[in-house]
Amino acid sequence: MACFQWQQQQQSPEPLELKTGDILLIRSGFHAQYAELGAKDEREVGEAWPPASCGVDQDLRLLKWLWDSHVAAVGGDSPAWEGFPSDDKADFTFHEVLLAGWGCPIAEMLWLEDLAASCRERKRWTFFLTSAPLNVHGGVASPANMLALA
């Protein structure tokens, strides 16, 4: 199911509510499954062309919701935040809009399994998230080096 549709259909007593400056993390389980692959399967996934991975759908409603929510950043445990290959019908990609259009960072391939377990244990899904990327002049990407504090 598309991320935005799933979020809209939740009947949780605590619905997802983003506040200005929040960071939205999406855990798909991709990284955990990838970590379980043997060397041969890992190589096949890495060399697949065109690359394919799970992620959020190129849904304009989700893009508008992110804008209206004033998120500071987004991230997830898959190779790209949005699913690839992307929808040919969409006239945008999240990477283009979030990074180049809004200056909104995207964190990818995060290990979220331990964080999810801790959140479940505490029954609390909010926390302080900090990141200290590498200080490389002219760099455009870096390991996230993130730390979540509950």
From TrEMBL:
GO terms for molecular function: arylformamidase activity. It comes from the Eukaryota. InterPro entries: KFase/CYL, KFase_sf. Gene3D superfamilies: Putative cyclase. One of its GO terms (biological process) is L-tryptophan catabolic process to kynurenine. It holds the Pfam family Cyclase. SUPFAM superfamilies: Putative cyclase. Belongs to the Cyclase 1 superfamily. This is Cyclase.
